Amino acid sequence: MYRILFSIALILLFSFGICAQETTFHQDVAVINGISEGLPQGNIEQISIIDNTPIATTDSGQYEWKDSKWISSNKANTATSLPKYKGLPEEAGKVLSTTNYGNTTYVGCENGLYVKIGNNKWKQELPSDINYSWALKEVAALTVDTKNRLWFGAKQGIGRLEKDKWTLFTGKEGVPYTHFTCAASGPKGQVWFGTEYGAFRVEENAIFYRANRRWLPDNIVNSIAVDAKGTAWIATKNGLAQIVSQEMTYPEKATYFTKQVEDRHNRMGFICQSHLTEQFNLNTSELAISDNDGQYTAMYGAAQAFRYAITKDPEARELANRSFFALKWLVDITHEPGFPARVIIPVDWHEPVNEQYSKEYNSKHQKNDPFWKDIFPRFPLSEDGNYRWKCDTSSDELAGHYFYYGIYHDLIAETKEEKDAVKQVVADVTDHLIKHGFKLVDYDGKPTRWGSFDPDYFNSIWGWDQRGLNAMMMLSFLNVASHVTGDPKYDEVAEMLREKENYDIYAMHAKEFFPPENAVPWDNNLGLMSLYGLINYEKNPERQIMYRIALENAWLHISKQKNAFWDGLYGAMAGFFAQKVDEGFFKPQELFTENPLFAKASIDRYYKSSLDNRYMTETLQRIPLDLIGYDMDNTHRLDIQLDPTPGQSAGMGWGNDTYALPIDERGHVRLDRDATVLHDNEGNGYAEHEGTFYLLPYYLAAYHKLIEP
């Protein structure tokens, strides 16, 4: 993780003095210390700061931090065993913690918090505020912060004493766990608590939980020390972590992630996660492929297109162009014009891709998944014999392609070559769908598994639950095609689907949310990315109102996910609608004449966006710089509520504020996942994910003026 800190340092060095007026925030970064940094394997008993030097105590001796390494030390560690206090009542039990505060001594015991009031005389403290009154148990953590406030950690929760007034915190106020082991104060009033399941930092009334391998080498915390810069040194049962809180700006973070993508996630212009051959070790990163290379590359291209529109940075334009021509290559390489491949790899790719999807595998897989497509080879050869491309392309791919085609056309395409290229590829893909009855048809002449957008499918028992989403997507594809090519035939096809097949009515309910198995989170990407093109390019005021209602219906189900991409898409599209209202696009008295009140009521109701951008900015600021997929378990937390929805899977829930947990405390970093899953991982330390999941929501939000840059 020192690579991350070095990258931050370079970014700050080269941007010093440029970003004075930009929003700044603190970015937490964890650096795990173990054998490679000079510590012995296993338990770190104690950590102290002596003469501004961290000193770690282990079973095999003491070590000091010098030149980014731990070396044997002869410095005396100030840590001592807890004294025995005279006069403490027997019922207090074992002494667990102690500190000096207000010219006296406080002692935390098994059965209470005691304050010394005279020579060998003690008084039990019974903290209370307007919400709670406690006779404390297991007071294992005591410290005094730099604002001269006393803090404790006990079985009931944590408490802060300031000017003889207590403020108490439980899970309801955000305390995640209460089996305390230690506490330490930082230089600016922050306080760290160690527990038997991670550590957390308190800044006034805000709590930041740092647990699981993203933050710590082990969840059992023995000791914490905070240095003068605010870095927390956390000693655990299996190594030590430094948690550095570095001031950053949004553009600096974007620079970091663009470099991360270009260094480790660019495969011939295609963008996706990478594989780590050694768990947690970025030095072992190797390029990988995914089922959705097209969509992920489109998302990266869109990020760079928005970046170019904001900054006019030529690098952004170059990367946006590279992404577009990678997408076009996916279309050009296949068996017929307009069919996009999922993936392109060199013929000598190191994985046996077709062997993984043998005919025997397909047959066996169909027993558990009847809709699995039996096609072989799944990676046919290109005509020139130099590449393989993956077939069975899905609606996910199309959503990404069309999302980016419109953005690329509007923000990047300037030369004749660029304009002709985007017109041609959009026409090819759309004509393929129309030619094949609104289906993606593979090289075997049959539809792909997830590529049906036709009325017969929607009216079948297999496709009824997808008709809202897929009908809306098909209308979006046609709107993008009309906008990009200028060919009126796409408007005519869309009109036929609306008038004869009710696609616009289906589109008003573009997403199923019940039963829970129908509510897969990546469909939110498909829906919102497609709505972006549908609403942005719709020319009919009645349909604009219908699609704005569809947007709000979808948004109400996902607005508490703290997903900056979904937040940004919703805010942008709500902004499109409000702008059209302001421009006089709607004439309410002329719309929906069979119900003359409907248009005005809808315009009034949906004119104002319901976006609260606090959660978008929280997520953008707290997306970790370390995008390795860690296993993150939050099922033990006291500050969560379990989802009571009938039929919902176990282990789903959210914070006590009714919103998803912050992204740096969850088991995923990709913004196409369900943020209410409490125990999750994305690769269990063997995958690093691409920085697109910061870049796209940031540049999208900045372009649409949803955040202050």
TrEMBL record:
Pfam families: Reg_prop. Keywords: Signal. SUPFAM superfamilies: Calcium-dependent phosphotriesterase (SSF63829). It comes from Arenibacter echinorum. Transmembrane segments: none annotated. This is Two component regulator with propeller domain. The keyword Repeat does not apply. Residues 1-20 form the signal peptide. InterPro entries: Reg_prop (IPR011110), WD40/YVTN_repeat-like_dom_sf (IPR015943). Gene3D superfamilies: YVTN repeat-like/Quinoprotein amine dehydrogenase (2.130.10.10).
